[in-house]
Amino acid sequence: MKDLQSSRWRLVAGGSEQGTATTVSYCCPLPHADVRYPPSSISLHPEQHVGTGTNVTIRCWSNDYGAAFFLHKDGSSDPIKYQNSSGGGTATFTLFGVTPADSGTYRCSYHPKNYSFLSSPLGDSMTLEVTPTPARPGAELVSRGNLVVAVVRGCAAVLIFALGVFFVIDARSLWIQRDESLGGEGIEWL
Q1: What residue segments make up the domains of the chain, in order of their start?
Q2: What is the pLDDT of residue 112?
C-alpha cells in the first residue's frame, strides 16, 4: 500500500474538451519524467518581445501523436495550462492580452498517449518579455488640451456666477432707489 502523504502530487486539468486549452483544476499523482520520451519543442508567435495587451500563441509539438501537453512557466511548480493534442502531435496555447506579469520562460512537456503517469522531460525553453505599451504619440498633447478646456470652462463658470451676482445686486440697488424716489420707505432687507 502506497503512503499518499509522502507522495508528490500536482494539479492537472480535467474535464476539458479535446483540443482546447484548460487551466489546472484537480489533483493526481505527479507523473514520472521518463527520458525515453524525447522533450517537446516550443515556439512563440508573434515574437519573444511584445507589448502589453498582445495575444501570444505558444505552440508545443512532439512526435508522439495523441499526447496530452502541459505548458510550464519557470518559477511555478505546476503546469499553467493543459491541452490534448487532438491526434496531431501539437498543442496551441493562447495567452490573451498579456501583461508584464506574463513575462517569463515557458516550456512544454507531454504525457504519451495511454501513459498518463509518465511524462516527457521538460522541453526547450522560450522566454517571453512583455513591456508596457508606450502611450501613443500625441497622447500628452491631448491630455494638456483636456486640462486647458477644463480650466477655460471653470473660468467661464466663475464669470457667469459673478455676473449673476452683479446683476442681482445692481437690480436691488435700483429697486431701492425707485422706492425712495416714490416716497416710500424702501424695503427692509434682512
Answers
A1: 9-131, 135-190
A2: 82
The 10s digit of each residue's pLDDT in 23-63 is 444 444 456 777 888 888 999 998 888 999 999 999 999 88
Sequence-distant (≥ 6) Cβ neighbours of residue 175 within 8 angstroms:
187
Q: Where are the alpha helices (DSSP H) in the chain?
A: 139-181
How far apart CA 77 and CA 30 sit, in angstroms, is 11
| Residue (of 40, 22, 20, 10) closest to 112 by Cα position | 40
CA distances from 71 to 26, 39, 74, 116, 180 (A): 16, 13, 10, 16, 93
9-131 — its CATH code? Answer: 2.60.40.10
Cα 63 to its chain centre, rounded Å, is: 34
CA distance 174 to 57: 78
For 132-143, letters b (16+ CB in 10 Å) and e give eeeeeeeeeeee
Q: Around 22, how many Cα atoms within 13 Å sit in the side-chain half-sphere?
A: 19
Residue 104 grid cell? 517569463
